[in-house]
Amino acid sequence: MTTLYNLLAILRKELLSYFSSPFAYGIAAIFWLMSGIFFSLMLSQIISNVEFLRQSGFAEPVDVAGDFLSSYLGLIISLILVLLPALSMGLYAEERKRGTLELLATSPVTNWVVAVGKLMGALLFFSVLLVPLWIYQIIVFSAANPPLPSGLVLVANGAVILVAAAVLSLGMFISSLTENVIIAYILTFVLILMLWIMDVFAQNLGGAIADIFAYLSLFQSYQDLINGVINSKSCVLFASYIFLGIFLTAQSIEALRFQRS
């Protein structure tokens, strides 16, 4: 019970820090503006393509809603991957900068509880940013005939949450290593970019190394999920990255705790 109380306290603290930060509101404004522009452009492009096919005498039905879902989430993830390091960069770096990380490291609250609480707070704030995207999808899917399977929509949007959790978890670890938020942002962005394009490296390699690189790629697993393909590989990969980030963060703070003792 005490562990749960501490976890909720950390989560609440992180949420309040986001909602009281002008920087976070600036990130939200930019994200909502860009996602709205992407929505308008993507929907207009798909409608134009359908009209072109119709005028060309193409008789087969076109799944506009399905095309929009995969195309929009495939495009919006590029914006999300730029945004997420900005949300994770201050999770521990700000604590180091203010000198409160030492107090956190020597507190009776376990490192795992603190890490999970911070990650949940950042992920919950990110989920708030996704609300307009869900509204956009409701607008499109409400007019779909035949209706798009709700399971496909849930899996695709769940993929966005999983990617966010993995990136925020790894970014949290990097944030625990430095007090400079700019360095934390850059290192996180570079790391995520490398994990995202692992499949590109795999295409230029061969043998077991290529298989390993392809497996570690966030991109391929994300693409599978937004297309409605659920497999154990994707779920295990995202869960592994989330756990790895939390584990490394806890070890990083434990090392600080050992130094102070």
Automatic annotation (TrEMBL):
Main location per the UniProt record: membrane
Subcellular localization: Cell membrane
Domain ABC-2 type transporter transmembrane span(s) in chain numbering: 6-198
Keyword check for Transmembrane helix: yes
Highest taxon in the source lineage: Bacteria
Keyword Membrane listed: yes
Keywords: Cell membrane, Membrane, Transmembrane, Transmembrane helix
Pfam families: ABC2_membrane (PF01061)
Membrane topology according to the record: Multi-pass membrane protein
Transmembrane segments: 23-48, 68-92, 112-139, 151-174, 181-198, 234-253
InterPro entries in UniProt: ABC-2_transporter_component, ABC2_TM
Designated name of the protein: ABC transporter permease subunit
Organism annotation: Synechocystis salina LEGE 00031
